[in-house]
Amino acid sequence: MEYIVLGLYPHFSCLADQCSATCCSGWKIYIDKEAYSRFQKIQPEWLRGEILAAVEKQGDKLFFKNRQDGSCRMLEENGLCHIQRYTDEKTLCNTCRKYPRLFGEAGQHTWLSMAASCPVVSAYLLKGDITWHSVTEYGEIHSVRIREIGDIKAVLQLWEENHTIADMIFRENPDNGLICSCFEKMINQLLDVVLSYRESAYLLPSFSFFEEQREWEVYLSLFEAFRTKTAAIWEKLQQSYLDYRIAGYLMECREQQKNTCYEQIMGELFLIRILVFSHYGSVGSVEDADWQKAIQVMYRFCAHGQGVAALVHNIFCEFFVNRYLWNYILL
To answer: Are 97 and 216 in contact (CB under 8 A)?
Structure first.
């Protein structure tokens, strides 16, 4: 079996209390049976009592309780895990021990990737130097041209075909108004999902920007300025995100076809653009940290949690009849 490994994977180091976000908030952390068995034997007794008091059962599964603000009961004020502080990483449940690492099969390979909701990963994507390596069963390591691997290549060919059409149309008839209209259309279609989303506080401020009253010409002028100022970083991010995300999505949804994979990734990129543009429109500037935050928030919304992710995926897949329009609004 050959493993394809994201370049960041073997070098990843958690930022711990220096992290600008937290992986311990906004979602229910599942506790596997082996971890629960470890928790029941932890010493000293007072620590065992605190951990077990933070566990709740839902159906036949165990989870850590969340505080009112959505954070895990085991998250300390300093941003560190209470369990790991007094034990070690091996004591944690699988969910916490493995995050943000991802592992799964897609096509003929086993892939080791990472979740873009982690600030370390989002910074890596924004940097733009995405690499992958193959590791054979004999431990041999080689660089991989990710775009030449079968399933990845098929999705990228679809992207290139649609990009060629979109670029030709945009050169003949650049229409920023269409792109701005699609911002509002996507916001309206996602709103009900966002309102039912447990981390809606991360998204609603960006959505509120599009509800403000402003002249259409002012809106267009704002987007044109944003598009010009962010052109270089946006082009680089699109390419790095494609190289990163296609494998990850195919790994998550093995039965999906190249068309739905393409639509999902285009939708994710468009949502990143919406979030960053709304920030620019509110404060008049955008920094690397704003792009990174947008990547993190988007990924949590689109990839964490099967229920919400499925609803968002359906919206993306039904957004356009002509797929080349995805590439058009991402130009």
So the answer is: no
Per-residue pLDDT tens for 32-50? 999 999 999 999 999 999 9
Provide CB contacts within 8 A for 63, sequence distance 6+.
Answer: 28, 29, 30, 31, 55, 56, 57
Q: Where are the beta strands (DSSP E) in 89-212?
A: 101-106, 109-114, 132-135, 141-143
Q: What is the band of 284 on the pLDDT scale with cuts at 50, 70, 90?
A: very high
Is residue 152 within 8 A of residue 299, CB to CB? The reply is no
Q: What is the DSSP letter of 301?
A: H
- pLDDT attached to residue 115: 92
- What pLDDT, on a 0 to 100 scale, did the predictor assign at position 17? 66
Per-residue confidence (pLDDT) for residue 95, from 0 to 100: 84
- By residue count, the chain amounts to 331
User: In degrees to the nearest 10, what's the CA dihedral of 95, 10, 157, 309?
Assistant: 10
Residue 23 DSSP symbol: T
- The whole-angstrom separation of Cα 194 and Cα 117 is 17
Mean pLDDT on 121-138: 88
Its pTM stands at 0.88
Q: Where are the alpha helices (DSSP H) in 40-149?
A: 45-53, 82-86, 94-98, 119-127
CA 270 to chain centroid: 12
